[in-house]
Specification:
Length: 130
């Protein structure tokens, strides 16, 4: 485990607000995941890998884009660990590392669509300006 991976792991925990130590590795989150068959790293494995700072594998995983963010894993967890929030935090870290987080306020009107919900606009602006 490199110091950089440990730092990223702590950042993921901070962004998500998830206490990975609460996980008892029961697998209920994975059992309820509708994307299970599509994921190479499953929800309970995300928790374990963030806790152990195995960040390189997470960043290369297809699972960060296969997660539906349906929060079925969150609802099923008996310890309120919230694996979906970890997946979202890893996704956000990866986007930021790729330099795709530079959305300026004056660029928003060009991206607007009449069918786009306002919540999506606010969420995107918040996510891509930090």
């Amino acid at each position: 485990m490199t110091t950089d991976n440990k730092t990223i792991s702590e950042r993921i925990k901070q962004i998500s607000g998830v206490n990975t130590r609460k996980c008892m590795k029961c697998g209920k989150c994975t059992a309820t995941c509708p994307s299970y068959d599509e994921m190479d790293i499953h929800p309970h494995q995300f928790v374990y890998m963030v806790e152990n700072a195995d960040i390189d594998a997470l960043m290369k995983s297809k699972s960060i884009y296969k997660c539906l963010s349906c929060f079925a894993c969150v609802e099923r967890c008996p310890r309120d660990v919230e694996p979906a929030k970890l997946v979202e935090a890893v996704r956000l870290i990866k986007i930021r590392q790729q330099g795709q987080n530079h959305l300026k306020a004056n660029q928003i009107p060009d991206k607007l669509d009449a069918d786009l919900p306002q919540q999506a606009i606010v969420s995107a602006f918040r996510k891509y300006t930090k």
